[in-house]
Amino acid sequence: MKSLVVLAGLLALVSSEPILKTSAYNYHANIGIPKAEKLAQIESAIDFDGARIVGGEDSVLGRTPHLGGIIISLTNGKSSVCGSSLLSNTKAVTSAHCWWDGTNQARRFTIVFGSVTLFSGGVRVNTEDVLVHPLWNPSNVDSDVAIATIMHVNYNDYVKPIALYSGDALHVGTWAWTAGYGTTSDSQTSISQTTSQKHVSLRVISNAECRRTFRFIADTVICVTTQKTASTCAGDSGGPLDIGEGDERTLIGINSFTHTEGCQHGHPVAFSRVSSFYAWINSRLSI
After folding, report:
1. Signal peptide location in the record (predicted)?
2. What DSSP character marks residue 9?
3. What is the CATH number of the domain that holds 41?
4. Domain annotation covers residue 246
5. Greatest CA span in the chain, whole angstroms?
């Protein structure tokens, strides 16, 4: 009996420990704050006109009109960065760890739509009205979803909402698009003057395959395979994973976490599966 009590205690201790091989826990200190500082410096380069993602194709303004970059003001006075997707004139969805990563608390989001730069241009709205999923757990990255309520944003060719996927398909083998305002490599310190906004197509893999890297993957997660030359990177958290083209695109994932080794080692990237949170998100779009 004593050994069972000890074992139960050890299991409880392990289950309460943060998952150290993901980028979500303590995201702001480890990734967001350094990337915000770096992005601000990068965007000040002459003729800079792009957002960043590893590999992919050059985009024109409006290629991902639902993408909203987020400049995050933290309670400690620092700035961090994330991404989001516009769902309606007054709602955007992002990752819960962009608001609270288990260590750092956000105070305000500045969400930027219709721009290839994060720190200038586009339609910019401030909000402190962010609703985190009630089951969000930074320790095991469960329910990494949040909804930001914003001032009314008008739609145009460069700012459009995206539909939520609500079906049962797992999308295994499907090629999906992602985009963001993160860096293009783990060691990036500068960019060329020809760098432009990029999006990348990545293949959805089964959760069983994803568990070979992240053993704790739940059914509420959807993963994509990556390569050293094509992936999401630091700062892309909260951004979209979508399928389809043009106005027929549908959001199937919300960028949740990568491996702590970085974005150029071929590890899968995990997104919150939108269909698993559809009811919760959709019920709050009209509030």
Report:
1. 1-16
2. H
3. 2.40.10.10
4. yes
5. 69
Amino acid at site 236: D
The reply to whether 115 falls in a domain is yes
pLDDT of residue 12: 40
Domain contains 3: no
Whole domain around residue 205: which residue ranges? 27-282
Instruction: Please name which of 201, 72, 219 lies closest in space to residue 146, comparing C-alpha atoms.
Output: 72
Q: Is 101 exposed, middle or buried (0-12, 13-18, 19+ CB in 10 A)?
A: buried
9 domain residue, yes or no: no
What token pair was written down for 98?
Answer: 């962009």
Residue corresponding to tokens 């698009």: 177
* 63 neighbors 180 (Cβ within 8 angstroms): no
CA atoms of 84 and 256, how far apart (whole Å): 11
Taking a C-beta distance cutoff of 8 angstroms, is the pair 143, 46 a contact?
no
Any idea what DSSP says for residue 82? E
More confident residue, 1 or 67: 67
- Nearest alpha carbon to residue 181 among 9, 42, 76: 42
User: How many structural domains comprise the chain?
Assistant: 1
Q: Where are the alpha helices (DSSP H) in 110-251?
A: 207-210
Query: What CA–CA distance (Å, rounded) separates 235 from 225?
Result: 18
Residue pair 27/237 in contact by the 8 Å Cβ criterion: yes
pLDDT, position 194:
30
- Cβ-contact 242, 171 below 8 angstroms: no
128-187 pLDDT, tens digit per residue, is: 999 999 999 998 999 999 999 999 999 999 999 999 999 999 999 999 998 887 554 554
CB 160 within 8 A of CB 65: yes
With a CB cutoff of 8 Å and minimum separation 6, the contacts of 248 are: none
**How is residue 276 written in tokens?**
């698993």
